[in-house]
Amino acid sequence: MEFVRNCWYVAGWGSEFTRELTAITVLGENVVLYRTSDGALCALQDRCPHKLLPLSKGRLIGDDIQCGYHGMTFGCDGKCVRVPGQDNLPEKATVRAYPVCERHGIAWIWMGEPERAVEDDIFHMTEFTDPAWAPHFGDALYLRSNYLNVAENLCDPAHVSFVHPTTLGNPESEDVPIHAERDGTTVITSRWIRNAPPVGVFKAIADFKGNVDRWHYYYLYSPSIAAIDFGSADVDADLADDDRSQGVRIFALHFLTPVDDTNTIDRWMHIRNFSLDDDEIGGRMNEQFRIAFAEDKDILEAIQEEENKCPDHRPVRIAIDKGANMYRRIVSDMVEQERQELQC
Amino acid sequence: MEFVRNCWYVAGWGSEFTRELTAITVLGENVVLYRTSDGALCALQDRCPHKLLPLSKGRLIGDDIQCGYHGMTFGCDGKCVRVPGQDNLPEKATVRAYPVCERHGIAWIWMGEPERAVEDDIFHMTEFTDPAWAPHFGDALYLRSNYLNVAENLCDPAHVSFVHPTTLGNPESEDVPIHAERDGTTVITSRWIRNAPPVGVFKAIADFKGNVDRWHYYYLYSPSIAAIDFGSADVDADLADDDRSQGVRIFALHFLTPVDDTNTIDRWMHIRNFSLDDDEIGGRMNEQFRIAFAEDKDILEAIQEEENKCPDHRPVRIAIDKGANMYRRIVSDMVEQERQELQC
Amino acid sequence: MEFVRNCWYVAGWGSEFTRELTAITVLGENVVLYRTSDGALCALQDRCPHKLLPLSKGRLIGDDIQCGYHGMTFGCDGKCVRVPGQDNLPEKATVRAYPVCERHGIAWIWMGEPERAVEDDIFHMTEFTDPAWAPHFGDALYLRSNYLNVAENLCDPAHVSFVHPTTLGNPESEDVPIHAERDGTTVITSRWIRNAPPVGVFKAIADFKGNVDRWHYYYLYSPSIAAIDFGSADVDADLADDDRSQGVRIFALHFLTPVDDTNTIDRWMHIRNFSLDDDEIGGRMNEQFRIAFAEDKDILEAIQEEENKCPDHRPVRIAIDKGANMYRRIVSDMVEQERQELQC
């Protein structure tokens, strides 16, 4: 599998990184992250060029990282600053330094050409900074699945009726058609389920009297971030298809980090516009999400196992796949474009 | 490894299958089995053609099976009967349906060309239905070994002297020659051990006064079923070589299901002509068999490990291998014949 | 990886072998060892030529080994002495017999051409038999690492400053240059650390008043044995560089057994010239060694994992690698020479 390289991936929540050395794997590359004494993030290739020992097995000397085998030491820019036992520093004794940045409490890493890393390109939603909305962090979910299948699941309103019948969906939505459109490299899939009982996640936090209108708008930002606008309002509100301003509403965010060909981390959180200061409500919602995402994990890992067995399988396509097919084509084009640019 | 496909394999004891979805693997293919509302067996390819999710992760809707991801639903004939969110059913949306049949309390499956499945070809012994004989079911023994080695062990009277010294054999038989003959695709290996102490399995159930004559007749029905006629009578009975009518006598049956190249299930049971209604006697015999077959498992799995290390090894052949060599040739011919028929 | 075959490897401490059958793996070959009734060692290929069962799953009949499957039996010379059920012995029914020898309480095995095995070539130090010195056996340390990396670590005085800061090294030695020289197929690396605090292993057993002069002389006998002359004396002793006669002194011995391409056993022991009869002192030193060698294991296994990921990696070379580079060239030449001799 080839990956899109020139984009910002999530390395972790900002809170995961300290003065301790933390080893992660992104796009199959081992990276060691730590904070310098002024709190800035530093990300280096996690492999000493001398004997290949992961640098994460060494230790910090000030803001430099010292290999745990023979003490070869590197600065945050990846350049060697010391080789014990000799005065000269070998020209090739460098490790790759990755651009990193912290935004909205999230640590971002750029796996592509460093000179193309622009911090303003980092994923942003106005709701992150809008005082009418409150973010609530969730978990890092490890999936033994390639990230494309995980992402497909995030532009797929149809599966909630079958995979998440107690939390995010219910049988009333089984046959409701899905609208899919493309906006640049973003895929938007959506549907309204009208006049149906509320689903589990909203029953857990709101006190609906009867049936509701429910909307699902999945914004999948290629290659690896999804924001799912998900809400319900009493049927009496009689909402138009373009009105998501009433009732309860959340954005469920998913930041996918492709670990390697068959492993992905899905870091998820939500942003809501109600009970802003009530952490207990956020916790109750996360409990619902944990149930739902464990169901996704079960499905996605089973699919990965089958794909490993029959890599040449050509799937049957059905109507609900429209968004997923758009997404696959976008990623394929992004990878191809990077390939061609590298050849120039 | 190629398998013989046009034959009935054991999918399980009949009691293993209910209205629950049960996943099994036969000849490397994943199959889901369940009973319809009228109790009939249904066996389908265990992989949704849409996103590859095993159908066994879904659920029954009446007698149809619904995929747990997007609800695509299939009937017992493997044809798609529903695709949620659309009215038309894609032509390719089918899964393979396997002929299945229940006989003698055993569930049989046909992995080859469905039009060649004839239920009368299912393995049968008159003793199954003869009131003078009583069947007693045993276990499903999982072996990390290819089925050819397991089957060889079932036309091999010689190994009991060394592998099963406390149950099925004893040192008196070490050097007794073995007779091997071929009858169509069946291999029959046999020997009489005359005037020797009784072996463990018979000591556990019969009260012999002194030495016995013991017979072993191994009927190996290629490619995967063995019936071992095994008995002992007091030496005073002075039995002729063709007389197995006296003393205690059992048929130990082994039904091999090749799971894949290196895994096999051996479902075993026995039929006996004494103490027909005494379940306790059957249980005591099974205890002896469990000891013996665990010894076989240990040997056969060790051999598989060695074969994996040196796949090109050419074994030394000795006199006792005659039956095994016949069996290997029969299976090789059966596989080759199926290959040629497919090319026509 | 190719191995040097024509040399004596350590099969185990002599105490590891009894009348029980013991299975070991050396250079990727499975070997079964046992003692004959007169106490002599016998080493045979651990695989019956009939059905490949490891002979170690069989049992001894006198001084012969009987296969646990069909009773084929072999003498210490690897020749078949019995095939149950037949009188003739097939010509090919032999297993390889390995020259073995016991010296200094250690069992040695020769994996190369048997006619070239000369017992006088077994590793020897006069200190083994000198009454002024006492040996003290240690453990068998299993490392998931190829033996070349383990051996490199045994001609590498530099790593102790970083890997073993509490036991064998300390920061004072970080930048002290290393001398490396070659003597035939032996690599000798050494350095003196002058006027520094004593290291942990010596503090545990000696009562130094202040700083010491410390020497490390690593004798690496290619391909797989190291003797590390390691000692300290009070700075007042004012030792010359060629004087290691004072203070405390030990030889730490490492006998590497390459199990296969990525696994090695390091059997270690020490010989000391003080407190000869005090087992408690030896035990206390071994505790220090266990801490230190667990640190090596951690490093060497991490390196092996990285090498598996990038087998074509070309490491950066630095000054301290001189001894390791000599060693790699010697082993490479030894392997090449054996290859050429086999072609003649």
What is the CATH architecture descriptor of the largest domain in chain A? Alpha-Beta Complex
Spatial gap, N to C terminus of chain A: 22 Å
Strand order of the largest sheet of chain A: 11-17-16-15-14-13-12
- CATH classification, class level of the largest domain in chain A: Alpha Beta
Bulk shape of chain A: elongated
The CATH fourth-level homologous superfamily of the largest domain in chain A? Naphthalene 1,2-dioxygenase Alpha Subunit, Chain A, domain 1
Average pLDDT level of chain A: 95
Percent of residues in helices of chain A: 10-25%
Low-confidence stretches of chain A at least 5 residues in length (pLDDT < 50)? none
C-alpha-based Rg of chain A, rounded = 22 Å
What amount of the residues of chain A lies in strands?
25-35%
CATH topology of the largest domain in chain A, which one?
Naphthalene 1,2-dioxygenase Alpha Subunit, Chain A, domain 1
The ordered H/E elements of chain A are EEEEEEEEEEEHHEEHEEEEHH
Largest sheet composition of chain A: 7 strands, antiparallel
Largest interface: A-B, 25 and 22 residues
**How many domains make up the 3D coordinates of chain A?**
2
Strands of chain A, count: 17
Alpha-beta classification of chain A? alpha+beta
Quaternary class: homotrimer
Total helical elements of chain A: 5
Could you please describe the fold and organization of this structure?
The structure is a homotrimer of 344-residue chains. With 344 residues, chain A is an alpha+beta fold. Chain A folds into 2 domains: 113 residues, 3-layer Sandwich (Rieske Iron-sulfur Protein), CATH 2.102.10.10; 214 residues, Naphthalene 1,2-dioxygenase Alpha Subunit, Chain A, domain 1 (Alpha-Beta Complex). Helix content of chain A is 19%, strand content 33%. In chain A, the strands form 4 sheets. Chain A has a 7-stranded antiparallel β-sheet with strand order 11-17-16-15-14-13-12. In chain A, strand 16 and strand 17 form a beta hairpin. The interface between A and B is medium-sized, with 25 and 22 residues.
